Amino acid sequence: MGVTTTISVGVGLLLGAAVLAQAHTLEPLPAGVSAGQVLVPQGVYAHIDTRQTQEMLQTLTQGSAEQQQAALERVRAAPERFQPPVLYAMSQVLFKAKLYHEAAFWFYAGQLRARFDVNRSTDPTTRQAVDALNQTYGAPINRYLFQDLDRALDLIANVVAWDRKTPYDYDPHWINLHGMQAVQAARDPQSAGARTAASLSQPPSEWAAIAERTRAKYFKSFQDAITGMQDKLPLSPPAQPSR
């Protein structure tokens, strides 16, 4: 089933349909797209279903406390069903509720899954979506987590283990709506007909290997960063002899 066919890129979040028409700028506009410009997804892009993501983002950013709590419980019960932007937004709600560790878990889970979706996409320009989500949600969570480097590495290890055992029961093509190929297709409907759903991603037979490479690179990047931070820490002063 297709989704609403108008894309409002004026708010900066290109998620298939006329996404949040509020002033919640979750991502920068794709290159060459001006604020307020309206694009209509063409061809295969018009059938990428992000309705659940749009609804959850609206609830998590603008819903009442009760609505937000209900949304959190939905994700906790079946996180495999939600596209990564929902996990990012969930982390913000949890952080504001002072559930810092859980907020960090879902932020990094969303980040890892978004990176996998980029890596299995055939449009390299979709990487900008992950950068923008990180910029929008990451600063307070990074500050919290890296106050304790051992805790940080343990959490990332848990995120990687969770990702490995948790299915991906959502449409990974949400990420394609953040790339220049989607913009070009919207501007040139004739060329959009040349693209198929299969052309948007690497072959599914390769996804498991791509996922494992993504996890390995992700964990190593944190290991290296944390090791570098630990190397810069001042040495503890020697213990004073007891008198």
Task: Name the average pLDDT.
Answer: 83
Give the strand order, joined by hyphens, for the main sheet: 1-2
Task: Round the Cα radius of gyration to an integer and report it.
Answer: 20 Å
Gap from first CA to last CA: 78 Å
Shape: globular
Number of domains: 1
Helix fraction, binned, reads 40-55%
Instruction: Please provide the ordered H/E string of secondary-structure elements.
Output: EEHHHHHHHHH
* Structural class based on helices, strands and sheet pairing: mainly alpha
In what range is the share of β-strand residues?
Answer: under 5%
Outline the low-pLDDT stretches. 1-29, 235-243
Tell me the major beta sheet. 2 strands, antiparallel
Give the tally of β-strands: 2
Query: Helix count?
Result: 9
Work out the oligomeric state of the chains in this entry.
Answer: single chain
Keywords: Signal
Protein name: Toluene tolerance protein
